């Protein structure tokens, strides 16, 4: 079971937010990472699931991957799980009021990663549930060190709420013209929703496919830096999905190493954030004592 944490997150005021009944939801020094696709089929779920599993493997810290798609998702399917409950169940039961109760709705994979799957209903989470989505994610962040979101491709209100909570947002694109056109539009839309641009990182997935634009060409045309490139390896991904395990559980491969690199970078980012927060806290204590 994940341990409960109650430290305040630096960028949020006070010790918590009020749920609908006025109950305070505490924040922690954990990290929320969102994977957002430029269009369907870019490999967003593959990256979210495997980076979450790798973060759990590397850090050995409580980690949950949440399927936040607006309708049935594939996160649990990729890991061979058949959960009884879903993210929608957690919303319907107002579970954010009592964060430890969220453990009823998650399922644990053999690798130690916890999964909160999408529901079977199309059109949910609905726009009117944006506040409930936000409060549930805040609650998850009090009991998990890492909350990884498969945000799909939608920018509806629930997704926008999740993105504004995220410490890092990985925009997943393929090296083809439709994806790259959508990438610039998506960046503009995410920024317009109130997300600072420095939180955005671009992942170029299937970068090794024959006949596609090179990373250098894409960066030059878009005027953007590609944070990570991930090669196309359909055989390895299909084998992992068919076996219900993360890619890291299979033989060593270039894809495995690239996913490991992303996971380690995210884990390191969290550690640096914690160190800066701790330094600011100690400095404040010394100033108050003098």
Quaternary organization: single chain
CATH class: Alpha Beta
The side-by-side strand order for the widest beta sheet comes to: 5-6-4-7-3-8-9-10
Report the sheet with the most strands, covering strand number, pairing sense and barrel closure: 8 strands, mixed
Q: What is the alpha-carbon Rg in Å?
A: 19 Å
Indicate the structural class. Answer: alpha/beta
Tally of discrete structural domains? 1
Tell me the CATH superfamily: P-loop containing nucleotide triphosphate hydrolases
- In round numbers, the mean pLDDT is 84
Primary descriptors:
alpha/beta, two-stranded antiparallel ribbon, single chain, globular, 9 helices, 40% helix, 10 strands, Rossmann fold, 290 residues, disordered N terminus
Would you mind describing this structure in some detail?
- With about 290 residues, this protein is of the alpha/beta class.
- The protein has one domain: P-loop containing nucleotide triphosphate hydrolases (Rossmann fold, 3-Layer(aba) Sandwich).
- It contains 9 helices and 10 strands.
- The strands form 2 sheets. An 8-stranded mixed sheet has the order 5-6-4-7-3-8-9-10, sandwiched between helices.
- Strand 1 and strand 2 form a beta hairpin.
- It is globular, with a radius of gyration of 19 Å.
- The chain starts with 15 loop residues before the first strand and ends with a helix.
- The N terminus is likely disordered.
Give the structure's gist in a few sentences.
The protein has 290 residues and is α/β, with parallel strands linked by helices.
């Amino acid at each position: 079971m994940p341990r409960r944490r109650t430290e305040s997150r630096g960028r949020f005021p006070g010790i918590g937010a009020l749920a609908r009944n006025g109950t305070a939801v505490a924040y922690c020094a954990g990290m929320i990472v969102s994977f957002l696709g430029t269009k369907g089929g870019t490999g967003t779920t593959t990256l979210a699931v495997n980076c979450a599993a790798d973060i759990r493997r590397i850090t050995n810290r409580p980690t949950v991957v949440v399927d936040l798609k607006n309708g049935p998702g594939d996160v649990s399917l990729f890991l061979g799980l058949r959960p009884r409950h879903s993210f929608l169940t957690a919303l319907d039961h107002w579970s954010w009021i009592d964060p430890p109760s969220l453990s009823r709705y998650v399922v644990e994979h053999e690798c130690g990663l916890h999964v909160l799957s999408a529901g079977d209903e199309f059109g949910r989470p609905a726009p009117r549930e944006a506040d409930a989505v936000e409060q549930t994610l805040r609650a998850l962040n009090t009991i998990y060190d890492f909350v990884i979101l498969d945000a799909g491709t939608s920018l509806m209100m629930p997704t926008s709420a999740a993105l504004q909570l995220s410490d890092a947002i990985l925009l997943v694109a393929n090296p083809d013209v439709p994806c790259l056109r959508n990438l610039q539009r998506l960046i503009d839309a995410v920024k317009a929703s109130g997300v600072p641009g420095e939180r955005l990182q671009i992942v170029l997935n299937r970068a090794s496919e024959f006949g596609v634009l090179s990373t250098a060409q894409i960066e030059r045309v878009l005027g953007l830096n590609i944070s990570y490139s991930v090669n196309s390896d359909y055989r390895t991904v299909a084998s992992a999905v068919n076996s219900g395990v993360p890619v890291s559980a299979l033989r060593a491969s270039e894809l495995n190493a690239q996913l490991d690199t992303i996971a380690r970078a995210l884990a390191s980012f969290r550690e640096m954030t914690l160190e800066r927060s701790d330094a600011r806290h100690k400095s404040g204590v010394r100033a108050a004592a003098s």
